Amino acid sequence: MVARRKNTGRGFVGVFAAVACASLFAAGCFGFGIASAGSAGADATSFGLGGTSDAVVLQVSDAPTQAAAPAVSEGLAIQSGAQRDVSQGYQEIEAEEEAARIAAEQERIAKEKACLQQVADAKAAYLARYGSLPVADVDFSMGRDAFIAEWTDRINDYLAGFPLAGHGETFATAAWDYGVDPRWSPAISNTESTRGSVCFSPYNAWGWGQSAWSDWDSAIRAHVKGLANGYGYTISYANAMKYCPPNYDNWYRDTRNEMGKI
């Protein structure tokens, strides 16, 4: 009876010892875990991670996953909206360009009609005063582009080999713009200076007062404009008397003959 109690006591002591060892072992493992975590933090610091704990790392890696889906969806919505806006913008641009083209064409037609009317008025005034044209008539009804193209070639042929060579387009364009015979100014340049060969003032091929210019194109336009404003549509005997009083008879004959060559 006594021996059994002793054995029982020993059993209880053994159980207690086992529990104590288990507790100590668990405590040791827990401490080891804390030490390990601390060690890992120290190692992380040594690799430049700033001692970030596992919990923080998990938190950082979880955040983008939660925000990724809305970001992609929002990006698609923006892209889709941008595509719709660009398409609408292209349509508006095309409409504006078409409106501008139509407006420019209407302006061109209006200017052409005004020029033709100017020429008609100038011819009518000339015929009312002198009765007939001294040289063959010029056809302005072909339109601006065709008129300039035709007379550019004819005037350039006439000026070839002289200082005014190559400026036929300027003569033709000025004649259209100011409504005068396109042959008149080039012919006067021959009578006055042999087509720019002998000019008493810079770029003044027409004996035009005391005028001087910096280039041929400016001079041509100024002379043609002066003819339109001061003399009318084309050459006449009265215009010769006004243009060259000392020698108007020869001036008229020579200039008219040169106009017939163009």
From TrEMBL:
Top-level division of the source organism's lineage: Bacteria
Signal peptide: 1-26
Keywords assigned: Signal
Classification via PROSITE patterns: PROKAR_LIPOPROTEIN
Entry keyword annotation includes Signal: yes
Name listed for the protein in its UniProt record: CMP-2-keto-3-deoxyoctulosonic acid synthetase
Originating species: Adlercreutzia faecimuris
